[in-house]
Amino acid sequence: MSRRPVRTVAIDGPAGAGKSTLAGALAEHLGLERLDTGAMYRSVAWAALERGVDVTDTEAVAALARGLRIELTDEHVLVDGVDVTAGIRTGAVDGAVSVVAANPDVRAELVSRQRAWVVGHGGGVVEGRDIGTVVLPDADVKIYLTAVPHERARRRASERGRHQLAEVAAALERRDHLDSSRQVSPLPDAAQAAADAIVVDSTDKPARQVLEEVLAWL
């Protein structure tokens, strides 16, 4: 049991670090709801690709984002009533989401929704790239989860059912570069994480061990 009340948890880190697994386990342990902010950016990217909107057209993509109804539950992601749970995890969306996430107006729209979600739920476990530094700088607990690139690529390849590890590794490297070099809310590395964040390296650690390591700090 937590030593002190925890209502908001921010989990940041690069793709493949294990954020979703940790977020789900922590949410269950603390009795909180969970929000995957990455799924929100993926939803916008999916909608842009589906509707033929050029993801590099910042104004068009921002207008699209403002008009989308995005609903997230523990099991499903809906965009304007369409179940896109599987659709947002495709290679095409993988290739587009960093461009969409670098759009300042898209970020402003989704960050506003993310903060409103936390207020509406009375807290929550929120995972993403800039939660502890931008979205919820006053979160009760901030976690930066990382792992070595090869391990992250292996996990992502396994999640997607892909066998070309080198291809997945190259895609992750590209995304890391795009996410960390964007002008608005760049993905920090472990050394640049929020000053009060707990930095956890999940390399070679089973999910249960990562959870126990985090719980020991609460």
Separation of termini?
Answer: 9 Å
Number of strands: 8
Radius of gyration: 16 Å
Helical content band: 40-55%
Number of helices: 9
Could you state the order of secondary-structure elements as H and E? EHEHHEEEHHEHEHHEH
User: Structural class of the helices, strands and pairings?
Assistant: alpha/beta
Can you identify the CATH class of the largest domain?
Answer: Alpha Beta
Describe the overall structure.
The chain is of the alpha/beta class and 218 residues long. It folds into two domains: 124 residues, P-loop containing nucleotide triphosphate hydrolases (Rossmann fold, 3-Layer(aba) Sandwich), CATH 3.40.50.300; 89 residues, Rossmann fold, CATH 3.40.50.300. 50% of the residues lie in helices and 14% in strands. The chain has nine helices and eight strands. Strands 2-6-1-7-8 form a five-stranded parallel beta sheet, sandwiched between helices. Strands 3-4-5 form a three-stranded antiparallel beta sheet, with helices on one face. β4 and β5 form a beta hairpin. α2 packs across α4, α4 packs parallel to α8 and α7 crosses α8.
